[in-house]
Design a protein that fits this description.
The complex is a heterodimer of chains A (451) and B (493). In chain A, 66% of the residues lie in helices and 5% in strands. Chain A contains 22 helices and five strands. The mean pLDDT of chain A is 86. The model of chain B is unreliable at 253-258 (pLDDT under 50). In chain B, the strands form two sheets. A five-stranded mixed beta sheet of chain B has the order 4-3-5-7-6. Chain B has a two-stranded antiparallel sheet with strand order 1-2. The chains are: A mainly alpha (451), B mainly alpha (493).
């Protein structure tokens, strides 16, 4: 007779996909739920507003398939945007589970992998903050799910999804080609060769169209910081996952040569774009799954220590997810920020606004104004230098020429920026000059006019 | 009881007695000890550590592991705090010699070589801060205890004892990471060297690792979130970072030593060392190599590195002594053997006991006059006053005077410590009164505490900008206390 635990486990294994979908819905809804509790119904994160802004322009599918997809919500309804994200997330996970089944990955490893993945901060980030990486994942998973079936029409249909990927950015196209080459190496199908050829053509076409190699960035880039979510990063791995990954790598060291290569390539990408941790997360979480499976399945001499260790690991993974959810839920904007931006929209509609880059996308979404500096600007380093000079210099001889040369008459300092600035120093000291006039001071946000 | 145990107990009593004599000969504690005294006092009064300190830096959050403070607080229930603190901290440090003896005995199975190792550890100069109160007092014996239990896993109950000690260690000091990294290093080297690894060792290492990280995350989540990897350097102002950590950076260390020679050097060392068949000695070598590596990479404080290495070396010494003795037996120098204990005692006297006593005599603690000045502040200044002192004296402002300090040696979560430290130096060094008053006003500092320590630290005889108009001398003695009375105001010219 089966024990109760065994029955529960079997029930979970049989219906794991349903439970995983429920878990995804809970995990991805939690940041929004926390925001709603704090009376904040705005979509999360400054980078999201870059994509929403682009989607509001009349975008064509060849310009950027992701923005085209977002533009389908032409009313700009926030609930629909949230549902979009949720659908991409659920769709991706179902397709991923299906793909793992097709490649005959051990059922237990698959379930552990999906559970760790859902709880990973990088996945929570990917599917709560708008970014093209989520769309890349979805397109690739649809493509491979179609390619792996036996029907010819399905394989031809995959072509459409794969060829769309280089339209996001060139690095995504390159990664897709690598994955397809790996698939071809294992399956040796002529059709796959054709698919690869078409994706290469699409990549060349996009190179001709001067698509960027990497889209973005839309946030501060700090490689070391981004490594671990327990050290404040929104994308990295928790300490527990990192240890499980190392255990998994040791356990599987000689079996995954190709994946080590893909891992190395994406790892290099992460140096230029921290957001590529999102891709890395998908791959190396599998090693973490092997690591956890080792802890679960290996016969320990000290049985109760094994149980306590597993309990600690599970708690650690949950703890890291909760921290990440909490941090994401507190990202801007909030009603106070939107209020201050509405003030600009009404009173200063045609001015270029000076603010540090983290607020630029919000300014451009909530007002008709243009912001001075963006993370994705080609001349970002020059503008960032000027921006820092404006914020930190206490000498009008340095600050005024920059403001005048760039025609900057409105200075927007949100509460997050102000909280990090030393009092009575830098621009806060210069504000005493008669050419500055404070026109807004509410909820710890300040707006100044420069004449 | 066996004769050898009587010898050991006698040694323990001797070391403890000498330590206590030194501890009670001087009435005060070393500067940082007052931070721990304050925490213990708070635990005794409220049952909880003081994580929101209204006095340090004029009010700040503090994050630390409270295991040690709870232990002292327990004894504070039966004895006056300062007596309990002195006795318990010295008992804990003296216990180290017993643990070194038992670990050495485990390795060598030889009484005298283990006894000599115990004597060396009992008189390790770096541990002769008899008036110091620090979580390391508990951390070091617990670490040795856990090493002992790890070496004795053949008895099942030792597994439970090991788990208990690791849990206590995780709650006492983050330096427990050294033990765990050492264990991981030991497993790695054993794997490379194809040495047999016991399953229990792997299991306990994995468990210790997860338990340690879990406890650290519980206590330090906020610091980790805010300061990231920089947490290793404790937000210490760059001006004094080299006092706590070696001067070279990770990158510099690698360049100065050279990545290849560093790796080859370690490899060669371990190759030659790993001819060693004794698993326990191999484990100690791994611990020592890992801590040297961490120290070279600028990731561990100098003090804890020296303490840890010192203890490992004394244990390894027992093994060396036995080998040397056996070697002498096999040569024509057998007669030397009977003089070897005598020679050794002479060496111990000159290289350990003498420096230890010197160390105990030259402890950096406040004088009675300085304590009296701090007491005066408590009696005669308004309760919300902020007092300017040197970095180390900051703890005394909080504990003895119960007033706000401008700065002390706990830098975690304090914004821009570099600038603050510069301002502290300016307030003692600047000759310009406007600059000084500007800084005093900015931080709402009401009193300047000018002690012999400040004179020595800043190499000054007086503070340059003091005058009768703006600074009233309110306390005069070896310590002088000045009240700041002027405000700087912006005027339209």
């Amino acid at each position: 007779m089966q024990s109760l635990n065994q029955k529960i486990l079997n029930h979970f294994k049989t219906n794991h996909l349903i439970y995983i979908i429920i878990l995804v819905i809970i995990v991805l809804s939690l940041p929004y739920a926390l925001r709603i509790i704090n009376h904040n119904t705005y979509l999360i994160g400054s980078p999201s507003y870059y994509h929403l802004n682009e989607a509001e322009k009349s975008v064509r599918i060849y310009q950027n398939p992701y923005h085209f997809f977002l533009s389908l919500n032409y009313l700009g309804n926030r609930i629909i945007y949230f549902i979009f994200q949720l659908v991409i997330a659920i769709g991706s996970l179902i397709l991923l589970a299906r793909l793992l089944k097709k490649i005959e990955l051990d059922e237990d490893i698959k379930i552990i992998y999906l559970l760790i993945l859902i709880l990973s901060p990088a996945l929570i980030y990917t599917f709560t903050i708008f970014n093209h990486y989520s769309f890349f994942i979805l397109l690739n998973l649809i493509g491979f799910n179609l390619l792996i079936t036996k029907q010819k029409w399905s394989k031809y249909l995959s072509l459409f999804f794969f060829c769309l990927i280089p339209f996001l950015d060139l690095s995504s196209g390159l990664l897709t080609i690598m994955l397809l080459v790996y698939y071809y190496y294992h399956h040796r199908e002529d059709l796959t060769k054709q698919v690869i050829a078409f994706v290469i053509i699409s990549l060349i076409l996009n190179t001709y169209l001067r698509k960027p190699f990497f889209l973005g960035p839309y946030e501060t880039q700090n490689w070391v910081w981004s490594l671990s979510s327990d050290m404040g990063s929104l994308l990295g791995f928790s300490f527990f996952t990192l240890i499980l990954i190392i255990m998994g790598i040791v356990y599987r060291s000689k079996k995954e040569v190709f994946w080590h290569l893909v891992f190395a390539l994406i790892f290099l990408f992460t140096i230029y774009r921290n957001a590529h941790w999102i891709y890395l997360n998908l791959i190396i979480t599998l090693w973490a799954a092997y690591g956890l499976n080792y802890l679960l399945k290996k016969e320990w001499k000290l049985k109760w220590i094994q149980k306590v260790t597993i309990f600690l690991v599970v708690l650690g993974l949950i703890f890291s997810s909760i921290s990440s959810i909490n941090k994401i839920s507190m990202l801007p904007p909030d009603p106070q920020i939107v209020d201050s931006l509405n003030y600009i929209k009404i009173t200063q509609p045609n001015q270029t606004i000076f603010s540090p880059p983290q607020d630029s996308y919000l300014i451009e979404y909530f007002t008709p104004n243009r912001a001075f500096v963006h993370y994705h600007d080609g001349d970002f380093s020059k503008k960032d230098e000027e921006s820092n000079l404006i914020l930190q210099s206490a000498y009008i001889e340095k600050t005024f020429p920059i403001l005048e040369a760039n025609n900057l008459s409105i200075i927007y300092l949100s509460k997050n920026v102000l909280s990090e600035m030393p009092k009575e120093q830098g621009i806060l000291f210069i504000f005493k000059n008669e050419r500055f006039k404070m026109i807004y001071d509410k909820n710890e946000t300040e707006i100044w006019r420069f004449k | 009881m066996k004769k050898e145990y009587w010898q050991l107990i006698a040694l323990f009593c001797l070391v403890l007695t000498v330590r206590l004599i030194f501890a009670f000969a001087q009435p005060n504690f070393t500067y940082e000890s007052y931070f721990h005294l304050k925490q213990v006092e708070h635990i005794t009064q409220t049952g909880l550590p003081l994580y929101e300190d209204p006095l340090s830096y004029g009010g700040r959050s503090l994050l630390f592991l409270p295991g040690y403070h709870y232990l002292i607080a327990f004894f504070d229930l039966f004895l006056p705090l300062e007596i309990a603190a002195k006795i318990i901290s010295n008992v804990l440090i003296s216990l180290i010699l017993l643990l070194v003896y038992f670990i050495s005995k485990k390795i060598t199975h030889h009484h005298y070589s283990s006894l000599f190792a115990a004597i060396f550890s009992g008189f390790l100069p770096i541990l002769w801060q008899t008036n110091s109160l620090s979580p390391y007092d508990l951390f070091l014996p617990l670490t040795l205890l856990s090493i002992y239990f790890l070496m004795s896993l053949n008895k099942k109950k030792n597994t439970y004892w090991y788990i208990g000690t690791v849990l206590l260690l995780s709650l006492t000091s983050s330096a427990t990471a050294l033990l765990i990294i050492g264990l991981l290093f030991y497993l790695l080297l054993s794997y490379i060297e194809k040495k047999k690894i016991e399953m229990e060792e792997i299991e306990l290492t994995i468990f210790s690792l997860f338990l340690f990280i879990w406890v650290q995350l519980l206590f330090f989540k906020e610091i980790l979130f805010r300061e990231g990897y920089k947490v290793i350097w404790e937000n210490i102002p760059p001006q004094i970072l080299s006092v706590y950590f070696p001067k070279t950076s990770i990158f510099q260390s690698l360049i100065l030593i050279g990545i290849v020679p560093l790796i080859l050097g370690i490899y060669t060392t371990y190759k030659s060392l790993f001819q060693e068949k004794n698993r326990n000695i191999f484990f100690l070598f791994s611990l020592a190599i890992s801590i040297i590596l961490l120290f070279t990479l600028n990731l561990v404080r100098v003090k804890i590195t020296l303490m840890f290495l010192g203890l490992i070396v004394t244990i390894i010494f027992a093994h060396f002594y036995l080998n040397a003795r056996n070697y002498l037996n096999r040569t024509k120098l057998t007669r030397l053997k009977k003089y070897s204990p005598l020679i050794l005692i002479l060496i111990i006297g000159l290289t350990s006991i003498w420096p230890s006593i010197n160390q105990a005599l030259s402890q950096d603690a406040p004088s009675t006059e300085e304590i009296a000045a701090f007491m005066w502040i408590k009696e005669y200044t308004p309760p919300d006053s902020t007092i300017l002192t040197t970095l180390e004296e900051g703890y005394l402002v909080n504990y003895v005077s119960q007033r706000k300090n401008f700065m002390d040696g706990h830098f975690y979560l304090i914004p821009d410590t570099k600038k603050r430290f510069d301002h502290l130096n300016d307030l003692y060094n600047t000759p310009y009164q406007t600059q000084a008053i500007n800084i005093l006003n900015q931080y709402h500092i009401n009193y300047i505490f000018f002690s012999p320590k400040a004179k020595e630290e800043y190499e000054i005889k007086t503070i340059g900008y003091l005058d009768e108009k703006c600074f009233k001398r309110v306390f005069d003695g070896t310590v002088k206390i000045y009240q700041s009375r002027c405000q700087l105001k912006l005027t339209n010219i």
